[in-house]
Specification:
By secondary structure, the protein is α/β, with parallel strands linked by helices. The chain has a single domain, classed as Ribokinase (UDP-N-acetylmuramoyl-L-alanine:D-glutamate ligase, 3-Layer(aba) Sandwich), CATH 3.40.1190. The chain is 36% helix and 24% strand. Helix 9 packs antiparallel against helix 10. The longest helix is centred in the last third of the chain and has 15 residues. It binds adenosine-5'-diphosphate. The site of adenosine-5'-diphosphate has 19 residues, from helix 9 and helix 10. It catalyses: D-ribose + ATP = D-ribose 5-phosphate + ADP + H(+). Its cofactor is Mg(2+). One of its GO terms (molecular function) is metal ion binding. Catalyzes the phosphorylation of ribose at O-5 in a reaction requiring ATP and magnesium. The resulting D-ribose-5-phosphate can then be used either for sythesis of nucleotides, histidine, and tryptophan, or as a component of the pentose phosphate pathway.
């Protein structure tokens, strides 16, 4: 099974013709409340591909908690280890202007309470998982505790990049990052060395500093998958991208579901790029994720 330990948010999406300047008031054109948070997104992506998924996280004692859990529930994610706490449900305030340019403010709220102690309360669930999936949207000591309790494979999507101890990062198998995040992780692990600009070099340096395997996501170009056995580039299908928000989370969820099913890392990346490409073709994050039926024809091709 897959256990995701991570963030749960509501994305408040507002549309404006242009972004206001400080002190300025503008009338926007629309508003939506959508379920989000990297942990929840990845849990939904994995569950919709058939994995048995549990989510460990926290929401507030508020009506936003219901919004946050809507698609988790319909996807069949086990939320019995999602605690209700006295902070508000996490919120991402996303403004998108007519050029598609966005600004985002995240209020962690309940997610900020997912430190070591809260994670420890789910130690048994974490230890029993074949795959434990982590991101950078809960406190560093909560991530470290989850990595310590895991006995299965740890998928660490260090996004956003936060400061983690080297042992936790080295527990990742794989570490899933984009180019920007890879550079920041290297700067943390080997601060005295310059950070390379070439993708292949970023990957080989991460392996060199002790990460067991690395998956570097490259947007429309797909991903690079690397471990001690070798390094492979995996191309993404060519699609018309409508909204890339949440594509990285779809990718990580798909990858984790495949690893839990027992396939090799390279095989898992081959499905994950297809799932990422599927997710960019429609609006939204969780609402754009495929089910097994959506990706089956390409899986068998
Ligand atoms: P992040 O948003 O975390 O930086 P990426 O942009 O690398 O992540 O996207 C993750 C995955 O989604 C990619 O590896 C790829 O499979 C897919 N993807 C993203 N953008 C596109 C695109 N324009 N065309 C096809 N696939 C895409």
């Amino acid at each position: 099974s897959v256990v995701v330990v991570g963030s749960i948010n509501v994305d408040q999406l507002i549309r404006v013709q242009r972004h206001p300047k400080p002190g300025e008031t503008l009338i926007g054109t629309s508003m939506e409340f959508l379920p989000g948070g990297k942990g929840a997104n990845q849990a939904v992506a994995a569950a919709q591909l058939g994995a048995s998924v549990r989510l460990v996280g926290a929401v507030g004692r508020d009506s936003q908690a219901t919004v946050a859990s809507a698609i988790l529930t319909s996807a069949g994610v086990d939320q019995s280890a999602v605690r209700t706490v006295d902070e508000p449900t996490g919120l991402a305030l996303v403004s998108v202007d007519d050029h598609g340019e966005n600004t985002i403010v995240v209020i962690p709220g309940a997610n900020a309470l997912m430190g070591a102690e809260a994670v420890q309360a789910s130690a048994g669930i974490i230890a029993a998982a074949a795959v434990v999936v982590l991101q950078g949207e809960i406190p560093a000591d909560g991530i470290a505790e989850a990595a310590r309790r895991a006995t299965g494979r740890v998928v660490l999507n260090l996004a956003p990049v936060i400061e983690l101890d080297a042992d936790t990062i080295r527990r990742a198998d794989p570490l899933v990052v984009n180019e920007h995040e890879a550079a920041l992780v290297l700067a943390q692990l080997a601060p005295h060395r310059g950070v390379p600009t070439e993708d292949a070099e970023l990957v080989s340096r991460l392996l060199e500093v002790g990460v067991a395997s690395v998956v570097l996501t490259l947007g429309a170009k797909g991903a690079i998958c690397a471990d001690r056995e070798g390094t492979n580039a995996v191309a993404s299908p060519t699609v018309v991208a409508v909204d890339s928000a949440g594509a990285g989370d779809a990718f990580v969820g798909a990858l984790s579901a495949q690893l839990a099913a027992g396939v090799s890392l390279l095989q898992a990346v081959r499905l994950a790029v297809r799932v990422g490409a599927f997710a960019v073709q429609s609006r939204g994050t969780q609402t754009s994720y495929p089910t097994v039926a959506n990706v089956l024809p390409t899986v068998n091709a």
